[in-house]
């Protein structure tokens, strides 16, 4: 039962193989088993690849099954259409397009399995890429907020500098009137005279202005700090909102790109393995000698071809004979007077009816 199933997978004619030796049946059962298990591997590989896309096992399994059946049908078609020839060159020329197709199928099948085999290494590469994307994303978002924050910080610095300048001027006035009172500067008269009072009043006015300036600038600085806090919160929110997109950067294309960044030699050997599996039925048929099955299949095809050729020639002969007879029959009829007179009468009646109809139509239009 299992042998019959694998023979069915090979695309060989089971009725012809039933008349062949056991060894011939085993050969095609082996070819069919290779085709079947290649399709199974294709199902597993495509299901994993599609799972990275849909994140749903049922959906991935369904489309993986469709893909596995497609690969099975292609492999079965490739193997079943290769015919043994008398010359190896003719066989190789016949198999070349199929070998190219087998190479393409091997690449498609091996890639998802490579991603599964090197999953840990790919995750490490993806983690590094995500970290780089996170830093780049923060820098990019910061470009939207940094200029405004720097401008606000400059405004705060200017307000603080204004206070510092005013404090320095007020302190200088303080030193001036103290020096006047001590007699170490100004009039150099010890005591609190009119000049001292004038300088003291000037300092007191500057001190009052300084206190007012501190109060005003403190309110302005508080408002500016609130704006900076708001911008910082907006920046944090933007980074937080965009982070899930970066965290989700592990789809099929991202994993293939990460796989390509790993050393190529292990992936190449895995590809060679699947290429060997995929092309083994074709190579087996090319290298194997012409067997009983091939001779019987060639005989059946020859019989069908001969029968079809015979039928075509018979139909061509029938058409030629029928045409010759018709020509002779119509030539004899054309010479008969009665048929000529009858045909002439009918044509005259038809012309009269056409003339009457045309006359009625013209009268109606008038």
UniProtKB/TrEMBL annotation:
The domain of life is: Bacteria
Task: Report keywords, A-Z.
Answer: Membrane, Transmembrane, Transmembrane helix
List all membrane-crossing ranges.
28-50, 57-75, 262-284
A Pfam family that this protein carries is: DUF4407
**What is this protein's record name?**
DUF4407 domain-containing protein
